[in-house]
Design goal:
The protein is of the alpha+beta class and 284 residues long. It is built from nine helices and nine strands.
């Protein structure tokens, strides 16, 4: 029987996998595929501590960057076929191949890198450039305006091999992750709401009211058929509107919302931006 012709994205992925670069498919919005039903909310347990690339036991391309693999059997499996049919691009796990990508979003970020970082391999992106260094480090978005770090536990879109030799990862890049992130891209642990007026107790009805609100927001995010960006923003706005000023929201609640969104393929950066925008809309 004639085998189907691999998509252009799958051909690129297989070529990279042969070069020991862990890869995964990306959707129209350049995010990873959402978790399958069995893996939503990480009920399957995910991968141990999410520290190594590769699919979970369901064999589908779940858990974002952690799905990245070099195994051609996995990449061409029936479980991955629907993802490749939807894919518009290929991503790779830089940390899985001992690399760090400094993602420069705009001309200002590029100018800053040219003045402050050693020259290395450069790849042009839609709006800016990727500077690629030899070495692995912690990933973080928004380390300064227009600059993200993609290395361990992260993914970067494959934009081609780039030009120029790769330089060793410099301390100037490592130092970026210990600085405070910009106000527009705070990490979930840095997201705060005004101090509680009622000692952390929800004054609306009961603690169960907050739990129902969080659970409902999680469910609507997980079941959204399309428009996931819009759904995530609306749910964040609803939760903040109801509980953002009474002091009952905790980091654990916020993490649950972020986890639900990331389970549908939203990046941490998208979650942070949606949360910040919702808080700004409410004057927080």
């Amino acid at each position: 029987m004639t085998q189907p012709t691999p998509s252009a994205q799958l051909r690129v992925a297989l070529d990279l996998a042969r070069r020991a670069i862990p890869v995964l498919p990306l959707r129209q919005d350049k995010g990873p595929m959402g978790n399958c039903r069995a893996c939503r909310k990480n009920v399957c347990g995910g991968r141990p501590n999410m520290k190594t690339p590769g699919p979970c036991e369901c064999a589908a391309p779940c858990h974002g960057w952690a799905a990245a693999t070099t195994d051609p059997v996995v990449l061409t499996s029936a479980a991955w076929a629907p993802a490749w049919r939807q894919a518009v691009a290929v991503a790779y796990h830089p940390g899985g191949t001992a690399l760090t990508v400094v993602d420069l979003d705009d001309a200002d970020a590029i100018a800053w890198a040219q003045q402050n970082l050693p020259t290395t391999r450069t790849v042009s992106s839609t709006r800016g450039e990727h500077w690629i260094y030899l070495g692995t480090m912690t990933s973080r978005n928004g380390v300064r305006p227009g600059v993200d770090i993609k290395s361990a536990m992260s993914y970067a879109r494959w934009l081609g091999p780039g030009t120029g030799p790769m330089a060793p990862l410099p301390e100037a890049v490592r130092a970026l992750v210990v600085k405070e992130p910009t106000a527009a891209r705070r990490t979930s642990s840095a997201v705060t709401v005004p101090a509680p007026a009622g000692g952390g107790q929800c004054p609306h009805r009961s603690p169960a009211y907050l739990e129902r609100g969080i659970a409902m927001a999680e469910q609507r995010i997980e079941e959204a058929a399309d428009g996931i960006h819009r759904t995530v923003y609306r749910m964040f706005l609803a939760v903040l509107s109801a509980h953002g000023r009474c002091g009952c929201l905790t980091d654990a609640h916020i993490k649950r919302l972020f986890t639900a969104a990331q389970g549908r393929g939203e990046s941490l950066r998208h979650c942070e931006d949606a949360w910040s925008n919702a808080a700004a809309a409410l004057g927080m």
